[in-house]
Amino acid sequence: DMELPESLGILMGAMDFATPDGYLNTVYFSLIGAVLTVIFSVVIGARAIAGDEESGMLDLFLAYPVSRTSFLLQRFAALVAGIVLMGGVIFVAITVSAGISEMGIPLGNILAACTALVLMDIVFGTAALCIGALTGRGSMALGITAALAVAAFLANNLGLMFEGIESVQKLSPFYYYLDGYPLRNGFDLGGIIVLCAIALALLAVAWWGINRRDLAV
Fold it and tell me: What is the pLDDT of residue 197?
């Protein structure tokens, strides 16, 4: 059988196909699930503010008695709702699949893993929203946030490969998403708090950005 070199395997994320929770964590939460949901969140976040500004629709929205802050919060709420809905679909799909396959993974642990995934996606979606609010350019928000997501993924996994740079991992949202291994250990309160704090900090920067500059309307 062909096996990935150990360094490549680590670079792609902690890989474990020997146990049911290890398989789900590797395939759905560390790789496929994380990549696809982050892409979805970044695209939605990049369009949340900058998309309307570039299309000229922002002028129409702000013509109503709606403040910039209120508009931002509504867009953020829509972003969060979309990501939570996506997380709910993933939770149901994995729960059904795990049940059919008799994997024996507690329902609470699946919920914990999906919750952590949703929170990490909210962080990257809010980052895209923030850059869009600061620049008014959707393509820039999309490109910069995508680059940050790749860098965060690599930073988390490179910390597993090289001694002495473990601290780099703690700069990555992926660390707070995966370090507690929620699929095996359940809810990681510390990681949840950090991810929520990052998202709120990015929202605060977005609020500052959208209120400080002249919008392209």
Answer: 98
